[in-house]
Design the sequence.
C-alpha cells in the first residue's frame, strides 16, 4: 500500500501524477505532506515539486480537454476539498488512456464531482467580482479586504487589471493573509505585516481613509435604501443572492450610521 | 467579458448592477400611472450633468456599480431633456475616459439627431412603450402617442444593424448601442390579456430586434385617478409568469401560440407556463431520456437548459438512469411524471391532467400565492380554473 505526499500546490500534484506514471504506480492516496497522518501501515513516498514534470502533464491535459474545460481541474483543485487529489488522479488516468470527451461523461461520479466543484469555485470567484468594495485611502490607494471560501484571487486578477487600469488598487485575502497589488503597470503578490485595516470586515482604519470616502459611502447607502421597493419586499430572495457572510464587507449592509 | 455583475441586492431581491437614476423628476406630462405626473404635488429636483458624471465615476471606481442607467422626466421638451442626457454620456466617455456600461433612455419625440448621438456614447438604448396597446395608452396618457415611440425604436434598430455591418468590414467603424435595444411594458394597469402581451413581445423580438422586453407589475399609485384599476397590491405572480413565458420563448424554443391560445388568453397563476403546457399536452409524454431529441427534453417540467444540455452530452457515454438524473440536479419530484428511462414499467404516465396538476400543486408551497394576486377579478374575460380562496 503506497501513498504519495506533495506540497499542496497544483504544480506539486501534477508532479506527483507524473511520478505515478514514471514508476508505474497506482497509489491509494495522494495527500499533502503537511496534513495530519491518516494512515498507519503504508509506505509513504514524498514527491518534490518539479516545474518541468508538471508542465509536461499540463500540456498533455490541455491537448485532450476542449476549450472551456481546459481549466476544469485547476478550478476543482482550488476548492481545497478533502480527497480532491485522488478524484483528479482517477480522472487523469481515464483521460490519458484515450477516453474521448471525458469531461462530458457526467454519468461517472468523479467527472460529475469535479465539474460541480469547479462550478462552485467559479461561483465564488464571481462573488469576488460582485462583492469587492474598494475604499480610497489617504495615499490614493483603493483597498479591499475580503475572505473568499476558496483561493480564487488568481482568478480575479485579470478582471480588475483591465477594469481599473488607471488607479492603484489592492485586494487582500483576510484569511489566507496575502493579496494582489496593482501599481498601474503590473500586478504583484503581496503580504501586509502592519495592517491598517480590520481583519474581520476588511474596513480600513479611519486614520488612513481618504476624506471623501465617508461621503461616498453615505451616498451609496442612501441610493441603496431608496432603490428598494417596499411593496415587493422579499428578504429571503435577497439572502439567496447575497449570502449573509458577505454583509460585513458591504457599506449598505453595515449597522453603523 | 463579465456580463451583468450584480454588486448588491435590494430588500425586494432585485439585482443592483447599475446606478439607476432619473436626471430629473420634473415632468411636463400627466400620465395617469406615473407618480411624477405634473399634477402631483411632490418635491422635485434635478441633477446637473456634471453631478451625474462625478457620482458615476466615484461609484464605479469603488466597484459599487457596473455602470450608469439614466432615465428622466421630461423637462421643458423632449429635445431639451435628451440633449442633457446625451451630454452626460459624452462627458463620461470623452472627459473621464470611462469604459463602463451606459444605458440611456431615449425620450419619445426627441429628434433623430439626438437619438443618433445617444447611440454613439451609450451601450444600450431603450424607449419605454409602457402600455401594450395604443388606445389604452391614449386613455391613460393622452399627451403621448405610439408614433413618437415606434419611430425612435425603428431608427435605433436600423442604426444598430448598419453599425454591425460596417464593423464587419472595418474594425475601426464607429459603434452604435452595441448592447442593443430594450423596452418596458406595464402589466396590470390596463386590461390587455397575457396573450396580447406575449404576442407583442414576440413581435418586438423578431421585428424590432429587441434584446429584452421587461415587464413591470403595475404599482398602485394615484388612487384618486378613476382611469386606473383599484388594486392594493402589484400583480407580482402575473409578472413572474410573464417572465417565465418570456424565458420559454427565448431559451426553450416555445412559440407564443404554444403558451397561450385564444381560448386561454391568461396565464395560469397556479402553475408555471411550462408545466401548464405539459399538462395540456400529455400525449407527448413520457419522454425517453436516452433517445428523445433536445427540444423534447427541454419541454420536461423540472429539466432546465443546463440539465438538458448535460443529458445530451452524458448519454453519449452511457445509458442514463433515474439516479444519474437526480445527481445532475433535475427536479425529480416534477420530472418523474413526464420521463422514462426504461427502468420501471411506465407507471407514472397514466395520470389524468387535472388530477396530476392537483397532486403537483399540493406538493409545492405555492398554494397561497393566488390569494396575493387581486388583479384578475377586474377584467371579466378571465375564468379562474380553480376556485379562488378568500
Sequence:
Amino acid at each position: 500500500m503506497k501513498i504519495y505526499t506533495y506540497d499542496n500546490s497544483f504544480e506539486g500534484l501534477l508532479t506527483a501524477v507524473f511520478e505515478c506514471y514514471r514508476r508505474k504506480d497506482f497509489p491509494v492516496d495522494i495527500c499533502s505532506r503537511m496534513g495530519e497522518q491518516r494512515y498507519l501501515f503504508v509506505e509513504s513516498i514524498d514527491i518534490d515539486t518539479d516545474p518541468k514534470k508538471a508542465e509536461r502533464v499540463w500540456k498533455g491535459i490541455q491537448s485532450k480537454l476542449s476549450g472551456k474545460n481546459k481549466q476544469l481541474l485547476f478550478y476543482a483543485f482550488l476548492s481545497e476539498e478533502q480527497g480532491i487529489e485522488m478524484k483528479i488522479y482517477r480522472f487523469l488516468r481515464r483521460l490519458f488512456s484515450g477516453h474521448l470527451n471525458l469531461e462530458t461523461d457526467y454519468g461517472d461520479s468523479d467527472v460529475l464531482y469535479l465539474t460541480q466543484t469547479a462550478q462552485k469555485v467559479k461561483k465564488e470567484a464571481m462573488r469576488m467580482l460582485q462583492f469587492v468594495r474598494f475604499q480610497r485611502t489617504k495615499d490614493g490607494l483603493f483597498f479591499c479586504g475580503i475572505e473568499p471560501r476558496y483561493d480564487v484571487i488568481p482568478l480575479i486578477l485579470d478582471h480588475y487589471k483591465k477594469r481599473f487600469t488607471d488607479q492603484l488598487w489592492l485586494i487582500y485575502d483576510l484569511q489566507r493573509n496575502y493579496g494582489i497589488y496593482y501599481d498601474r503597470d503590473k500586478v504583484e503578490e503581496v503580504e501586509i505585516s502592519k495592517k491598517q485595516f480590520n481583519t474581520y470586515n476588511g474596513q480600513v482604519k479611519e486614520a488612513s481613509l481618504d476624506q471623501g470616502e465617508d461621503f461616498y459611502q453615505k451616498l451609496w447607502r442612501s441610493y441603496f435604501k431608496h432603490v428598494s421597493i417596499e411593496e415587493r419586499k422579499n428578504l429571503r430572495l435577497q439572502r439567496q443572492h447575497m449570502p449573509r457572510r458577505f454583509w460585513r464587507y458591504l457599506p449598505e449592509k453595515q449597522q453603523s450610521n | 467579458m463579465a456580463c451583468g455583475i450584480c454588486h448588491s441586492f435590494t430588500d425586494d431581491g432585485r439585482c443592483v448592477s447599475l446606478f439607476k437614476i432619473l436626471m430629473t423628476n420634473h415632468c411636463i406630462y400627466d400620465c395617469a400611472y406615473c407618480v411624477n405626473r405634473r399634477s402631483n404635488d411632490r418635491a422635485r429636483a434635478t441633477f446637473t450633468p456634471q453631478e451625474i458624471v462625478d457620482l458615476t465615476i466615484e461609484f464605479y471606481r469603488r466597484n459599487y456599480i457596473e455602470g450608469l442607467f439614466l432615465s428622466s422626466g421630461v423637462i421643458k421638451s423632449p429635445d431639451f431633456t435628451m440633449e442633457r442626457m446625451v451630454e452626460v454620456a459624452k462627458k463620461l466617455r470623452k472627459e473621464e475616459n470611462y469604459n463602463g456600461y451606459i444605458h440611456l433612455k431615449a425620450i419619445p419625440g426627441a429628434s433623430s439627431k439626438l437619438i443618433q448621438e445617444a447611440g454613439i456614447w451609450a451601450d444600450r438604448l431603450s424607449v419605454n412603450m409602457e402600455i401594450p396597446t395604443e388606445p389604452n395608452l391614449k386613455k391613460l396618457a393622452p399627451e403621448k402617442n405610439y408614433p413618437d415611440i415606434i419611430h425612435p425604436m425603428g431608427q435605433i434598430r436600423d442604426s444598430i444593424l448598419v453599425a454591425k455591418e460596417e464593423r464587419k468590414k472595418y474594425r475601426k467603424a464607429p459603434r452604435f448601442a452595441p448592447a442593443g435595444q430594450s423596452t418596458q411594458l406595464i402589466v396590470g394597469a390596463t386590461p390587455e390579456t397575457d396573450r396580447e402581451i406575449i404576442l407583442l413581445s414576440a413581435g418586438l423580438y423578431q421585428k424590432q430586434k429587441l434584446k429584452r422586453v421587461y415587464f413591470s407589475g403595475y404599482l398602485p399609485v394615484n388612487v384618486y385617478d378613476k382611469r386606473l384599476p383599484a388594486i392594493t397590491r402589484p400583480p407580482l405572480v402575473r409578472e413572474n409568469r410573464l417572465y417565465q413565458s418570456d424565458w420559454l420563448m427565448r431559451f426553450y424554443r416555445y412559440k407564443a401560440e404554444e403558451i397561450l391560445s385564444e381560448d386561454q388568453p391568461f396565464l395560469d397563476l397556479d402553475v408555471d407556463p411550462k408545466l401548464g403546457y405539459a399538462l395540456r399536452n400529455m400525449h407527448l409524454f413520457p419522454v425517453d431520456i436516452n433517445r428523445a431529441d433536445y427540444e423534447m427534453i427541454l419541454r420536461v417540467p423540472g429539466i432546465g437548459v443546463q440539465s438538458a444540455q448535460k443529458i445530451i452530452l452524458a448519454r453519449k457515454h452511457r445509458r442514463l438512469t433515474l439516479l444519474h438524473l437526480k445527481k445532475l440536479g433535475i427536479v425529480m419530484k416534477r420530472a418523474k411524471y413526464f420521463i422514462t428511462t426504461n427502468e420501471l414499467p411506465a407507471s407514472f404516465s397514466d395520470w389524468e391532467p387535472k388530477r396530476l396538476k392537483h397532486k403537483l400543486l399540493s406538493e409545492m408551497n405555492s398554494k397561497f400565492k393566488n390569494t396575493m394576486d387581486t388583479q384578475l377579478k377586474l377584467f371579466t374575460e378571465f375564468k379562474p380554473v380553480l376556485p379562488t380562496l378568500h
Chain B has a mean pLDDT of 90. The radius of gyration of chain B is 24 Å.
